[in-house]
């Protein structure tokens, strides 16, 4: 008697999770520098508790690397403040930090051709609305 479909789906899910874990160093490298919670608190002039609260209210993008200490991509800050588009980006895409930085930093492709931009570059060049629209279309939640 053949194995139930659930086993096959479980195996597929396990392989996808393993691929995701294996891809994290590459995603983190594409994202670039990141701050610790202590550094963000110092930058914003608040407590680490306030930083965690901002993550909880979709005010900051954070991810948990293998080291176990939450990190905050540096590109979401402008001087001593959070970029104005961060909250709306999280609202449109979802709060999974790894998924969000992958979405923003993966090179875009069209008809098999690797293009020379990622959504993060569009944010940096002021094309925020374009990225927010793409985030809403891509929302994995």
Overview of the molecule:
The chain has 141 residues and is mainly alpha-helical. It has one domain (5-138). It contains 7 helices and 6 strands. It has helices spanning 5-31, 37-44, 48-56, 86-93, 97-105, 119-124, 128-138; strands at 34-36, 71-73, 77-78, 81-82, 109-110, 113-114. It has a two-stranded antiparallel ribbon with strand order 1-2. A two-stranded antiparallel ribbon has the order 3-4. A hairpin with a 2-residue loop joins strand 5 (109-110) and strand 6 (113-114). Helix 1 crosses helix 5, helix 2 crosses helix 3 and helix 4 (86-93) runs parallel beside helix 7. The chain is globular and about 50 Å long. The termini are far apart. The model has no long low-confidence stretch (mean pLDDT 87).
Task: Please give the structural blueprint.
Elements: H1 5-31, E1 34-36, H2 37-44, H3 48-56, E2 71-73, E3 77-78, E4 81-82, H4 86-93, H5 97-105, E5 109-110, E6 113-114, H6 119-124, H7 128-138
Antiparallel strand pairs: 1-2, 3-4, 5-6
Helix pairs in contact: 1-5, 2-3, 4-7
Indicate the mean pLDDT.
87
Number of domains: 1
Shape category: globular
Secondary-structure element order, N to C: HEHHEEEHHEEHH
**Which regions are unreliable across 5 or more consecutive residues at pLDDT < 50?**
none
Radius of gyration: 17 Å
List the strand order in the largest sheet: 1-2
């Amino acid at each position: 008697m053949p194995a139930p479909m659930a086993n096959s789906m479980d195996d597929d899910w396990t392989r996808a999770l393993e691929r995701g874990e294996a891809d994290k160093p590459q995603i983190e490298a594409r994202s670039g520098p990141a701050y610790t919670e202590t550094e963000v608190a110092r930058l914003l002039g608040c407590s680490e508790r306030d930083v965690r609260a901002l993550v909880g209210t979709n005010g900051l993008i954070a991810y948990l690397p293998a080291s176990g200490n939450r990190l905050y991509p540096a590109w979401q800050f402008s001087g001593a403040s959070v970029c104005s588009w961060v909250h709306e980006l999280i609202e449109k895409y979802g709060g999974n930090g790894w998924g969000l930085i992958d979405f923003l930093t993966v090179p875009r492709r069209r008809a098999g051709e690797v293009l020379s931009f990622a959504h993060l570059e569009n944010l940096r060049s002021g094309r925020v609305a374009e990225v927010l629209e793409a985030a809403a279309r891509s929302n994995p939640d």
